[in-house]
Write a structure and sequence with these properties.
The structure holds two protein chains of two kinds.
Chain A: E1 4-15, H1 22-37, E2 46-50, H2 61-64, E3 71-74, H3 80-93, E4 99-107, H4 124-128, H5 134-149, H6 153-168, H7 181-185, E5 189-191, E6 194-195, E7 204-213, E8 225-234, E9 246-248, H8 256-268, E10 277-279, H9 285-294, H10 303-309, H11 325-329, H12 333-349, E11 363-370, E12 374-381
Parallel strand pairs in A: 2-3, 2-4, 10-11
Antiparallel strand pairs in A: 1-7, 1-8, 4-7, 5-6, 8-12, 11-12
Chain B: E1 5-7, E2 26-30, E3 36-37, E4 52-56, E5 60-69, E6 87-94, E7 98-104, E8 117-127, E9 133-141, H1 144-148, H2 151-155
Parallel strand pairs in B: 1-9, 7-9
Antiparallel strand pairs in B: 2-3, 2-4, 5-6, 5-8, 6-7, 8-9
Classes of the chains: A alpha/beta, B mainly beta.
């Protein structure tokens, strides 16, 4: 089977852009990715484009060129971008195309997501009575995790502080003001034990990746980044997942992140010990902590010591969310996972500027988690 | 003045409240594999059977985890009062049945703890213009002192 490699990345800044439609941000990201790859739009043979807010994201061809290219819209909650890149890679691996694109774009209004519970297959009373909030799940999951594994409030604050510090060095990030752990701990509690500065916010932005066959990459770049594996898994019965009015008792069932992570490592032939830099879904500071363990990068409870030691800092043993993560960048759902891969590609090329991790990183890891219990993992290498 | 009350929806919990019968959540049990569901579901997510029977769930459980809601949720879908009072939510484990997400009557996280004994109750989560209280289910911490009392005394 032919391997897919990334030859170009493009990122529209994340944040608030009044008057600029998501489609225009997406087109900008595509043009940046095409320029980075040294290819033109008519050369693209197919692609996948993801968005939550844009009903027909594939209409972006109207901004780029009506070449007749097959461009398929995809959506998998917060794992949407994982789906777009997986399918774009699959189209190359199976021989359908030689040159593909993965695009993500979104423009969310301010504040927490508001939706009709029926879109998630949940009855109206769940929303009417104030239970239909994803932030509840994150508060409850980390509260239980802190109880079981001895994670402190200070560690939550250190994670948030790290991600805002990393974002301060990222000109395309949204939240670029560094905050000390003390400042994070002084912000109002939104959902105990999570505080305002421990949560990411929905925002706007776009990202794109150009992929090609590994055996043709030399025509475009001397630094292709290999897509070693992609995996997407949904929740299993008994797992504790977002937006669940109830779930069964019994032995704990592992999250879809654990399932997707194991599958991705196995397909890549790469283990957690080989990962040089990781981008993990940090919807909130607690999620980053939990996802370190769920992705096999440490044992449950080890985070308390690792984070105190600075292991997840840019200069540490296992840098996590070097571009500021979701906390620093916010979450335009369709683009979020491609923003993660954009950062890994810069790190593996050694072009991440002030955010560049030391040494010669070879393996990068990205992870998404979202409603209603879906996770996507992508493992990349030089 | 009598206050009119109505449930947020039919079929979620036993209604109207009865002096002789305790309040219960209305779940279901798959007739093929026995999986307990809440709210009641005709289709089973374990064995895919489409036959189930109604099962009234236990009205006591233990607190598995919790959080607080310190800002007014987006509205719609939330239809509680404009004057927002923070509330708590949690998952309560009903032994041998399931873990159910619910409002908690105690809003102070310092007064909640994982493993705490909880009992089912109703709360008026909203009041309509005509004064009608809209009721939903919630769990309340069981008073430690009451719990310590011997059952015999309670019965006497």
């Amino acid at each position: 089977m032919t391997e897919a490699v990334i030859i170009g990345v493009g990122l529209h800044p994340f944040g608030r852009f009044p008057g600029k439609p998501a489609m225009d941000m997406g087109a900008d990201a595509v043009r940046l990715a095409l320029a980075d790859a040294g290819v033109t739009w008519p050369q693209i043979q197919g692609g996948y484009v993801g968005s939550f807010e844009v009903a027909n994201p594939d209409a972006i061809v109207g901004k780029l060129g009506l070449t007749g290219v097959p461009l398929r819209g995809v959506f998998n909650g917060c794992a949407t971008a994982g789906t777009a890149v997986a399918l774009a890679a699959r189209a190359i691996e199976t021989g359908e195309h030689d040159l593909t694109i993965a695009i993500g774009l979104d423009k969310h209004p301010r504040g927490a997501f508001a939706a009709d519970p029926s879109v998630a297959g949940i009855p109206p009373w769940y929303g009417q009575t104030g239970l239909f909030l994803t932030t509840h799940f994150f508060g409850m999951k980390i509260n239980r995790y802190m109880h079981d594994h001895g994670i402190s409030h200070e560690t939550l604050a250190r994670v948030a502080s790290k991600n805002f510090r990393n974002a301060a060095g990222n000109e395309k990030a949204w939240r670029r003001t560094p905050l000390t752990p003390e400042e994070v701990l002084a912000s109002p509690v939104l959902n105990h034990p999570l505080r305002q500065y421990m949560y990411c916010g929905p925002d706007e932005g776009a990202a794109a990746l150009v992929l090609c066959r590994a055996d043709q990459a030399h025509k475009y770049t001397s630094t292709p980044v290999r897509i070693r594996s992609t995996s997407l898994r949904s929740r299993r019965l008994g797992a504790f997942e977002v937006q669940s009015p109830s779930f069964p008792v019994g032995e704990p069932v592992e999250s879809p992140t654990v399932d997707a992570s194991r599958e991705a490592y196995e397909r890549a032939g790469i283990g957690p010990e080989d990962v040089d830099v990781a981008q993990l879904q940090d919807t909130d500071a607690g999620s980053e902590i939990i996802h370190m363990a769920e992705n096999g990068l440490c044992k449950d409870g080890e985070q308390e010591r690792l984070i105190a030691e600075g292991a997840t800092e840019i200069g540490g043993r296992l840098p996590v969310n070097t571009d500021g993560g979701l906390l620093g960048n916010g979450e335009p759902i369709g683009a979020s996972g491609l923003r993660q891969i954009h950062e890994i590609v810069l790190q593996l090329r050694g072009t991440a500027g002030t955010r560049q991790i030391p040494g010669t990183p070879r393996v990068g890891y990205t992870h998404l988690y979202g409603a209603p219990g879906v996770s996507a993992v992508t493992i990349l290498s030089t | 003045m009598t206050t009119t009350q109505r449930p947020v929806t039919e079929g979620l919990f036993t209604w109207p409240p009865s002096a002789s019968e305790p309040l219960r959540l209305i779940g279901s049990e798959c007739t093929a594999c026995g999986l307990v569901s809440f709210p009641a579901a005709s289709d089973c997510v374990r064995c895919a059977s489409d036959e189930s029977k109604i099962r009234l769930l236990a009205d006591r459980g233990t607190l598995w985890t919790y959080t607080t809601q310190n800002f007014r949720p987006p509205s719609p879908p939330y239809d509680g009062p404009e004057t927002f009072e923070p509330y708590a939510v949690g998952y309560v484990e009903l032994a041998g049945e399931l873990l159910v997400e619910a409002r908690l009557t105690e809003p102070d996280p310092e007064k909640l703890r994982i493993g705490q004994d909880m009992r089912l109750t109703l709360v008026p989560y909203a009041v309509r213009d005509d004064g009608t209280e809209v009721m939903t289910f919630a769990f309340a911490p069981v008073e430690e002192s009451a719990q310590a009392e011997p059952v015999e005394e309670e019965a006497s």
